[in-house]
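Q: What residues go here?
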């Protein structure tokens, strides 16, 4: 799932795990940030530390999937390299790319209400996260609750068309890689 901060990804992930038939894992990137030592990181080091955390996260997800596990990933594709990295790691036919949309007005209301995210974070990500423009399925949490979105995604899984969004994006954005399988 891809969407801005406060768009409702974690809420949908929790609902999905309750309704999916197969045993599934929710792997949030926040869990990986939380595993890092609490030593203070200088502003010069920070970009590299964050990048390595995201890259390690992608590889951990790919590793779980390679062992045959179903993974619910919540992601913020606010930097292009993150999608390019995932396109090279995940089996494109296996990926269901979900766009989690929400109006900016509602995002700002949620961000203020929860108080545990920097002010303006969702607005900064808003235009960038959906820049690649292609999904297998999309939901809008401005109008639908988390459980309804999870049901919509779950229903989509049983009748999903091919090529997947990931297959198409890999062909378009990673011509350096072999044809998407
Ligand atoms: N469909 C929804 N309708 C109304 N409120 C929602 C909905 N989904 C989530 N929320 C509320 O929005 C806030 C953020 O939700 P959530 O943590 O699921 O978002 P997120 O996209 O995972 O955010 P982050 O990336 O910052 O962790 C929470 O307070 C949650 O209760």
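A:
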């Amino acid at each position: 799932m891809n969407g801005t901060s406060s768009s409702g990804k974690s809420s949908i992930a929790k609902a999905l795990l309750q309704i999916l038939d197969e045993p599934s894992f929710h792997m949030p990137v926040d869990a990986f940030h939380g595993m890092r030592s609490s030593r203070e990181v200088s502003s010069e080091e920070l970009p590299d530390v964050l990048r390595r955390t995201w890259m390690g996260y992608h590889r951990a997800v790919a590793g779980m999937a390679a062992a045959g596990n179903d993974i619910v990933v919540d992601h913020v594709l606010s930097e292009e390299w993150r999608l390019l990295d995932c396109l090279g790691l995940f089996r494109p036919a296996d990926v269901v790319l979900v766009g989690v949309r929400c109006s900016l007005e509602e995002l700002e209301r949620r961000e203020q209400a929860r108080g545990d995210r920097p002010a303006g974070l969702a607005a900064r990500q808003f235009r960038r996260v959906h820049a690649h423009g292609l999904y297998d399925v999309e939901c809008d949490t401005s109008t639908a609750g988390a459980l309804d979105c999870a049901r919509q995604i779950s229903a989509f899984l049983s009748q999903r068309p091919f090529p997947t969004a990931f297959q198409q994006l890999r062909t378009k954005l990673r011509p350096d890689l072999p044809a998407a399988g």
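A: Context that may help when evaluating the design: The beta strands are 24-28, 70-74, 98-101, 137-140. The chain has a mean pLDDT of 96.
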